[in-house]
Specification:
about 0% strand
Length: about 375
């Protein structure tokens, strides 16, 4: 029987991913480039994105992924066969990630999650994971801070010569997009063993530890004081990053946002626990979305790439945060409706179906 609370967390994290990913689907090299003049709405959305979205949903997804590994391991008899199935799922997921990164969007997370998940299996029966969590989440951030000092990039807006050069190099055909994807995803693959693999692994181990302590079953509760301490700690760190985002210091602090994302993700865990108890219908909708998370994640990329690069390429230049946020809301609604329709039709998501078939095939080899 599925854990509905865990599915609701997965669905919540999945829907939130596109809030920041859409920027990089339009322009993978630089993400969102600010307009010359910024009104109050632009600044407010920028602040809200930094505080509540940047890295938060990715972090929450990692925690859920780690908890799910423990659940899968304990769902059947522990043994070589069960581990083989889990490893097969992760390997197939990694292949999905490679295809996704090269053919659609190089910001793929599936390959990184698959590799981190394979390493996380070594901690399935570990009794103490918190030291590993601390080292694996902090050390990659320190490395990236050092790299940001050595390779600093000047900030620019839409009036700069650098932006004009960027616009002239944007792909105008799928062949050009594919060439750009190959270049960018090769760089992402190089970055995985340097930093992102270990940070993701640390977050997955934290998810494992939280599951063992009852965080994903409603057995553990956090005091209001502790939750508000996490909340304000994350908010204040994000405010510091946001207020310096166009300076050299801001580039260094931006990497530290990986750490500020952890307490906010823990707050989301508590929030979704409250929603699960107080508004079960909303929790059920999020859980339905979570059950189709792989198909919907790939759908986000398909829609984003189609809109920004083929249907409405001018949006890569014209969209401000207001338009991006409107696009995010529309895409969220489409995903929720599609998931509900698939659930009512008792259909498996296409990506989930393909994943199961591939794993079943490997199990019978």
């Amino acid at each position: 029987m599925r854990n509905q609370y865990l599915d609701s967390l997965r669905g919540f994290a999945l829907l939130g991913l596109s809030l920041t990913n859409l920027f990089f689907m339009a322009n993978f090299a630089y993400g969102y480039v600010s307009p010359v003049t910024r009104d109050g709405v632009e600044s407010a959305l920028s602040l809200l994105t930094t505080v509540f979205a940047d890295g938060r949903f990715r972090t929450l997804f990692c925690l859920v992924f780690g908890a799910a590994l423990v659940i899968q391991y304990k769902a059947h008899n522990k043994g070589v066969d069960n581990l083989f199935v889990i490893k097969s799922r992760l390997c197939v997921l990694g292949i999905f990630g490679v295809l996704h990164g090269y053919l659609l969007w190089p910001g793929d997370i599936l390959l990184n999650y698959a590799l981190s998940g394979l390493l996380a299996l070594m901690w399935l029966d570990a009794k103490h994971r918190l030291l590993s969590v601390a080292l694996l989440t902090v050390l990659p951030v320190i490395l990236l801070v050092i790299l940001s000092i050595l390779v600093s990039e000047p900030g620019f807006d839409r009036s700069s010569a650098e932006y004009a050069t960027l616009l002239s190099s944007l792909p105008v055909s799928y062949a050009e997009l594919l060439s750009e994807n190959i270049s960018h995803f090769n760089m992402m693959i190089i970055l995985i063993p340097l930093a992102t693999l270990w940070n993701t692994l640390g977050l997955m181990l934290l998810g494992m530890e939280l599951y063992e302590r009852g965080w994903f079953s409603g057995q553990a509760f956090v005091s209001a004081k502790m939750m508000w301490a996490w909340w304000w700690g994350s908010v204040l760190a994000s405010l510091l990053i946001w207020s310096n985002n166009e300076t050299i210091l801001g580039q260094m602090l931006e990497t530290l946002n990986w750490l500020a994302a952890i307490p906010m993700a823990l707050c989301y865990l508590v929030l979704l626990q409250a929603i699960h108890q107080l508004w079960p219908k909303l929790s059920q909708v999020l859980a339905i979305v979570g059950r189709y998370s792989l198909s919907l994640y790939l759908l986000q990329s398909v829609v984003g790439i189609l809109v920004f690069h083929f249907l409405f390429p001018a949006t890569r230049v014209s969209f401000t945060r207001v338009e991006y946020f409107g696009f995010f809301l529309a895409l969220t609604l489409v995903q929720v409706i599609l998931a509900i329709l698939l659930d009512r039709a008792k259909k498996t998501g296409p990506a989930e179906y393909l994943l199961k078939r591939c794993v079943r095939h490997l199990s019978h080899m």
